[in-house]
Cobalt-dependent inorganic pyrophosphatase
Amino acid sequence: MTKNEQILLYIQGLPIGSKISVRQIAQAMEVSEGTAYKAIKDAEVEGIVSTIPRVGTIRVEKVEDKRIQQLTFAEILNIVEGHVIGGHEGIYKTISKFVIGAMALEEIAKYISEGDLLIVGNRDDVHKLALDKGCAILITGGFSCKEEIKKMANEKKLPIISTSYDTFTITSIINRNIQERLIRKQVLLAEGIMPKKLHYLENTCKVRDMKRMIEATGHSRFPVVDKNMHVIGIVTPRDIAGADDGDSIVDLMTEDPITIDKNTSVAYASHVMIWEGIEMVPVVDGKKLVGVVTRQDVIRGLQYIRNQPHMGESFEDILFHHCKVEETENGLKLTGEITPMMLNDLGIASAGVLVMLMSTAGHLVIKKQKHLDSVIDSFMVYFIKPLQMENKIEIQAEILNMGRKFYKVDILVFHEKEIVSKAMMSAKLLKR
C-alpha cells in the first residue's frame, strides 16, 4: 500500500465533521506537508472531505448515487456565493427542504422543521424561531444577524449563511441547480453498470492462468494490471492462440488499452466502443482498475435508461417536446415551430438547435428501422437558411443506405414547402 493510500485510509477513519489540516495530517502520518496536501486533495476528489470558505477542510460523509438529489449546506454555500456567519460545524449536513420566510412569524412556524433551510431576510425573531426548530438559515440581501443568534447556531451546529442576492434571485438559482442535478441523476454512469465481481489478470500471470480464469468465469477478455492495480493491457483468446501455457501474459497482451473513468456516461462509453470496435473496456478511478464494462452491459444500461421516468428535462428534451413525430412511408417527420428558446443573439433560429433536431430525427428513423441504438459517425450540413420565431418547420428523415453496422440518413428541413436546410448523417449501430 502506498503512503498516499495509507493517508486516505486514515482520513476515512476520522469522525464526520472533523477539521483537517495539512500540518495535522503530516504530523499524524509522519510525512511531508507536500505529501499530506496531495492526499487531502485526493480525498476531496473522492468526496470524503470538503473545503469550505472561511471554515476550512472538513471530513464529510461521501454522497452516494442514491442521495444525489440531496444538497448539503456546503453546496448551497457555493451555489449562492455566500459566507458562513455561524454554525460552521453543521455545514456538511444535508437539507430536508427549503422554506421561504416571507410570511408572519406564526405562519413560518407551521412550515419549518428540523433539517430545513429557511430563506429569509433581516428578521431576528424569525432567525431565533428557525434555530429553535432545528432549522438552518440563509439570510438574503447581504444582511448578518445578532451575536446571540450566531452563538445559538454554533451550539446547535446549525449553519447560518449570508448572501448578497435577494430572495427571488436565490430561489431561482437554487431551483435551476436542483433541476440540473435531476438531469445528472438520469445520466447513467459506467460505475452504475459495472458487474460487481471484477476479474483481472496480474502482470505475473501465465497463459495457463488465463485459461483457468476463462474456465472459472466464463469470460474471455481480461484487463492486465501491475502491482498498483494500474491497467497496463488487455488480453483476449486471440492473443494467446498458439502460445505455450508457460508464456507470460505481458508478452502477449495489447498494451496501453483504451480505458474510461468510472464517471463516464454509458452513452459516451457506447460511442467509444463502437468507434474503436472493442467489446470490453476497463473502468478506472484515477489510474486504478475498479471494473470493466462490456458491450452487453452498455446495451442493458441504455435499455434501463429508456424505461425509467425522467424527472428533469434537458435542453434536448424541451426542444423535442415542441415537435410532433409521424411515421412516413420511407422514414419519419418531425413538425413544430421555432420558439424563443431556439433563437440566437441575432434573433434567428440557432444553427446548433437545428442540427440537434435533425440528428434526433436521424436517430429516430434508424431506431424505427432496426430497433437498435446508434451513434453518429459523421454529420454533414450542406446549408441552413435563416428561420424566424414562430416559423413552422417540418424535418424529414429518410434512410438512403444501410449496411451490417452503419446507416446513412438523408435529412431535409422544410418551411412553407421550401427546403431551408439539408444534412447527411452517417451512424454506427450498437449491436451485441
Summary: The domain at 3-55 is CATH 1.10.10 (Arc Repressor Mutant, subunit A). Residues 167-186 form the longest helix (20 residues). The first strand starts at residue 19 and ends at 20.
